[in-house]
Design a protein that fits this description.
Helix content of chain A: over 70%
CATH topology of chain A: ABC transporter involved in vitamin B12 uptake, BtuC
Low-confidence stretches of chain B: 377-426
Number of strands of chain B: 2
Number of domains of chain A: 1
Number of strands of chain A: 0
Largest interface: A-B, 53 and 52 residues
Low-confidence stretches of chain A: none
Oligomer: heterodimer
Mean pLDDT of chain A: 85
Strand order of the largest sheet of chain B: 1-2
Structural class of chain A: mainly alpha
Mean pLDDT of chain B: 78
CATH topology of the largest domain in chain B: ABC transporter involved in vitamin B12 uptake, BtuC
Helix content of chain B: over 70%
CATH architecture of the largest domain in chain B: Orthogonal Bundle
Shape of chain A: globular
Distance between the termini of chain A: 60 Å
Number of helices of chain A: 13
Largest sheet of chain B: 2 strands, antiparallel
Structural class of chain B: mainly alpha
Strand content of chain A: under 5%
Order of helices and strands of chain B: HEHHHHHHHHHHHHHEHHHH
Number of helices of chain B: 18
Radius of gyration of chain A: 20 Å
Radius of gyration of chain B: 29 Å
CATH class of chain A: Mainly Alpha
């Protein structure tokens, strides 16, 4: 029972993990991308589009190639997510628009685009294709609880963890990460030190959005098993919450995502959940996030603060 | 010398600078042009989706809003709601307090309003009930906005993230209350029959529209003429200045946010008491977020805001009519609204910034600079001046590129001649 719960929590945490890792990278550069829910929706559209194009190119569903059925949607998701990020950074970096306004616009657009497209797509073969997303290591069943906890997941779950670990190392330990943090903390100083603020912000936002988009793909192809009639935006907001909850650290983000995932699925495991308790449990992640936000601001330790320039577009000629 | 060349080569050919000198008519012309462009783009998208539907899309846009008095009233009611929430977020934004929690504040207002309707309904007179509802709604909205404000004032907690989270806590609370009220898991509270706003004239919602119109004027006066309005705009411009002239910044932050939340609460009251007569997590319908865009587009001016709110209401109602006639599905208006905002946001850039294409000029400048360096060993200010004077036509620029290319090759005496010529030309 416990192992099943943990396994499902880890699996579901992938949605948040992609979103939170992407958003952390973006926010480290000083960009508050409130378009993340929209970006996840747009990424999911890209993935579904890729999958349906691939399935259409086959003469028969039984010819499906597992590798191609997974890798094509992933690449398409990355492209679509990156395009959404490009849009955001073009507006906020080049046109110097307000980040909140631009982000909310992307969210509005993305949600609309998602449900518009998903209603019109041809869904044949998606269940078969999603099996390749869900499939874990072949030896998972024979390895007992160990197999269940560590080996039973689909490609995207491992990908999420790998990306989060890499992001954590790059941000914390490399020169690129140092520059990125400098841009997010004080762009004027970074600029004076010869770091291209524009370049770092563009790349961080585009990369972050591409990663966040994968969260949308995971939700549709892995969690829902190819059933594509759901909206993803609520998870996007939870990813934004998670970034605060894990105080802008992708490695903590892995644990935080699992916790959020566990909270999200826990009503299913309660013996007699009344509807009201279910709603309260769903509320906990946001509540905890607020508490973390308050506590970190009261403690006022430098390591746990938001990037100082978060949400402020940089214009060199401004004082 | 080569260093200088290298450095200048890396300069971007587009130079962007801030401008404040644009005449009002010109900036409104740009915005008007953007609106027309956005409408055309929406029509083009529609004709891509189903070929040849451009004209019928445009027709349905207007039909959906104005063909019957009922539709027109709906349009104005939606405008009023959006405007009310936009008015609510405006004082906070002027103070540079990014209150994106309007959605949650409206929901809390709506929740408390519905609670009053449910528990006091039938026990007190309807007129009194409406007043009680108003008071409770204001309290609900204000409490929800004051919590982040206090933490912002005291510990500088990030208000954008805080208010964002408060939205979802409010949604969760509503879902929770509904689950208690309606134990059969249907998740919908039926129509609450007490405390509905009285009808004025033949159509509903008139009262909503009148109330919001009054509020608009009040907020306009508050922001423009009151001491409070002045103080909050000083805090928005510079916290240090505000402190220096003796404004209690913390007090201003909390006071403004109470006002902001109270207005959101009124919006919740208008929605539940005046329009939907029930409560759900969808009762605010994303208006809290749209209102932020509306307020920002109007540059936080309540009068301009009524136009932008109308425009957004028109777009969403018109495009949803067009979508249902042309069979595009219910989410089409969101795409249209998104596209519209993208274009309008981009147009603001051209209002606020000046773009100079310095592609040709840079080279001329570079030549001048070299010139100056050779003659007196320093980068002369005159070299810059002479280049800046020519605000040239494209053909002039190309001519100058040719000139400057020659100049680099020529010895310095000829260079000086060339420079003189150029000055004359300019």
């Amino acid at each position: 029972m416990f192992w099943t719960f943990l396994q499902r929590a880890i699996r579901f945490s992938t949605v948040f993990m992609f979103g939170a890792t992407g958003e952390t990278i973006t926010e480290k550069s000083g960009h508050l991308n409130l378009g993340i829910p929209g970006v996840m929706c747009i990424g999911a559209v890209g993935g579904v589009l890729g999958e349906s194009l691939y399935l259409k190119s086959l003469s028969d569903i039984s010819q499906i190639n597992g590798f191609a059925a997974v890798i094509i949607p992933i690449i398409m998701t990355l492209i679509f997510g990156a395009l959404a990020g490009l849009l955001f950074s073009f507006f906020t970096v080049t046109l110097r628009c307000n980040q909140n306004v631009t982000g909310l616009t992307i969210t509005t657009f993305g949600i609309g685009f998602n449900s518009f497209y998903m209603n019109r797509i041809d869904k044949t073969g998606f269940t078969a294709a999603s099996e390749y997303f869900i499939k874990g290591f072949p030896c998972a069943d024979s390895a007992g609880w160990f197999g269940q906890i560590f080996l039973s997941y689909g490609t995207l779950v491992y990908l999420a963890i790998i990306i989060a670990v890499i992001a954590a190392i790059v941000i914390k330990r490399t020169r690129v990460g140092l520059n990125l943090r400098a841009v997010g903390e004080n762009p004027a100083t970074a600029d004076a030190a010869g770091i291209s603020v524009t370049k770092y912000r563009y790349i961080a936002t585009i990369l972050g959005s591409a990663i966040a988009g994968l969260g949308g793909l995971f939700f549709i192809m892995d969690h829902l098993g190819g059933n594509i009639e759901y909206n993803i935006d609520a998870f996007g907001w939870m990813a934004v919450a998670l970034v605060i909850f894990t105080v802008w650290k992708p490695n903590w983000g892995i644990l935080g995502s699992i916790l959020f995932g566990a909270l999200y699925i826990s009503p299913d495991f309660m013996t007699v959940p009344s509807a009201a308790t279910k709603e309260i449990v769903k509320l906990i992640p946001y509540f905890v996030t607020v508490v973390v936000l308050i506590v970190t601001s009261i403690i006022n330790k430098r390591e746990t603060q938001p990037p100082a320039a978060l949400g402020v577009s940089y214009f060199r000629e401004e004082r | 010398m080569t260093n200088v060349l290298k450095k200048l080569k890396l300069e971007s050919p587009i130079h962007i600078s801030k401008r404040t000198d644009m005449p009002k008519w010109k900036s409104w012309l740009i915005r008007g042009g953007a609106i027309v462009a956005a409408l055309l783009l929406c029509g083009i998208i529609s004709s891509i989706l189903s070929s040849g539907s451009f004209s019928s899309f445009m027709e349905q846009m207007f039909k959906g809003c104005f063909s019957t008095p009922r539709r027109a009233i709906n349009l104005f009611e939606e405008t009023a709601l959006l405007l009310c929430i936009s008015l609510a977020v405006t004082p906070a934004f002027k103070m540079k307090f990014w209150n994106i929690g309007a959605e949650g504040q409206v929901l809390m207002g709506a929740l408390l309003c519905a609670t009053c309707m449910k528990y006091f309904g039938g026990k007190v007179d309807d007129g009194l009930l409406i007043v009680i509802m108003l008071v409770f709604s204001i309290v609900g909205g204000a409490v929800w906005s004051t919590i982040p404000a206090i933490f912002k004032a005291k510990w500088n907690t990030n208000e954008t993230l805080f208010t964002l989270m408060m939205n979802y806590i409010a949604m969760g609370l509503i879902a929770c209350v509904i689950a208690i009220w309606v134990p059969n898991n249907s998740g919908t509270v039926g129509v609450l029959s007490y405390g509905n706003f009285p009808k004025i004239g033949r159509y509903p919602y008139i009262l909503n529209i009148i109330i919001v119109a009054i509020l608009t004027v009040l907020v306009f006066i508050y922001l423009r003429f009151s001491k409070h309005g002045y103080e909050l705009s000083v805090v928005g411009e510079s916290v240090n200045t505000a402190k220096y002239i003796g404004i209690n910044v913390k007090k201003v932050i909390v006071r403004t946010m109470i006002l902001s939340g109270a207005l959101c609460g009124i919006a919740g009251w208008l929605i539940v008491g005046g329009a939907s007569h029930t409560v759900s997590t969808e009762v605010a319908g994303g208006r809290g977020f749209t209102a932020i865009l509306i307020s920002w587009l109007a540059h936080f001016d309540p009068i301009a805001m009524s136009f932008t709110a109308f425009l957004v209401a028109f777009l969403s109602q018109g495009s949803s009519q067009a979508a249902s006639v042309l069979n595009f599905g219910g989410s089409f208006p969101k795409i249209i609204t998104g596209m519209f905002f993208f274009i309008i946001i981009a147009s603001e850039f051209f209002v606020g910034y000046k773009i100079k294409f310095t592609f040709g000029k840079r080279k001329a400048e570079r030549a001048d600079e070299l010139n100056a360096e050779e003659s007196d060993g320093s980068i002369g200010a005159t070299a810059y001046d002479s280049a800046d004077l020519g605000d040239g036509e494209p053909n002039e620029i190309t001519a100058r590129i040719d000139n400057s290319a020659e100049e680099i090759a020529l010895p310095s005496e000829n260079n000086q001649n060339a420079q003189k010529e150029e000055e004359v030309e300019a």
